[in-house]
Amino acid sequence: MGREAWNDFRLYVITAESNHPGKSVVDVIEQTLIGGAQIVQLRNKTGSRDEVLEQAKALRELTRKYKVPFIINDYPDIVLETDADGVHLGQEDMPIAEARRLLGPYRMIGISTHNLQQALAAERDGADYIGVGPVFPTDTKPGRAAVTTSYVTEAARHVTIPFVAIGGITLGNVDLVLAAGANRICSVSAIVGSHDPAAMCRSFLRRLEAGAEESKTVVMNGREEHTRARTVEQLVIQAGQQNKKLVIELNGIIVQRALWAETELKSGDSIELVHFVGGG
Questions:
Q1: Which residues, other chains included, contact 252 with Cβ-Cβ below 8 Å and sequence gap of 6+?
Q2: Is it the case that residue 279 has pLDDT exceeding 60?
């Protein structure tokens, strides 16, 4: 599977062995693929290497059938043995450079990140994508503090490689994640723990598609940004600049502070946020 397969993915699905009692991991993941899952990751933290290898072989065959990229968590050697498309690493796993040496230039390398410093380091080190999370508290990451949607916004503003928002995401809160700047999401428990994973995938994809339709592209301080902000004030809040003294210029015209809330943004607008410091 070439890297071009990563250009348009929106919905990333990860296995969770404890979330589908009475069903095999292959059966559950096939349902997610029927529902439109666009990338699959095998994550098995409790099984033996032999068990992970057996699951990986079965999922490699399944994802080939559906022409979907297949990622394995933690095991670059099993990636090679099963001809998977890539590996996903944690912050405590082997360095990205070592994984790249083992896997070569064409396989994908993803890494979980929990703050902007880790994200920028992963980008510098050659990661192909990063996980951003956990956005909300989740049983799949016990003891890991939620990074909240503020980190999603930071990643959207500063990271140029693809990022996937993950952690506690449900149909009830996914709109908050999309509004924060994500356009790729992963939901583990809400999908593979559902009684109907295919239907749940379709529901998430509808939300993602609706979010893309509401999104607009603006140029903010010389950099292209994708945003769902409707007004100048909403954009300032999403950028985390609401408590700073700003002069705002929209398409070459200064917008008075009293008019931010009613000044609508359009796709293609150019906006400059200039900080100033008062003094006597």
A1: 270
A2: no
CA distances from 114 to 49, 57, 95, 245 (A): 27, 30, 16, 29
203 is catalytic: no
Superfamily of domain 217-275: Beta-grasp domain (3.10.20.30)
Catalytic residue among 23, 57, 141, 202: 141
Looking at per-residue pLDDT, the higher value among 211 and 133 belongs to 133
- The residue from 10, 100, 107, 112 that is catalytic is 112
Q: Where are the domains of the chain?
A: 3-214, 217-275
DSSP characters over 27-89: HHHHHHHHTT--EEEE--SSS-HHHHHHHHHHHHHHHHHHT--EEEES-HHHHHHHT-SEEEE
Please tell me the CATH code under which domain 3-214 is placed.
Answer: 3.20.20.70
Read off the pTM. Answer: 0.79
User: Quick one: pLDDT at residue 57?
Assistant: 98
Residue 230 annotated as catalytic: no
pLDDT tens track for 112-126: 999 999 999 999 999
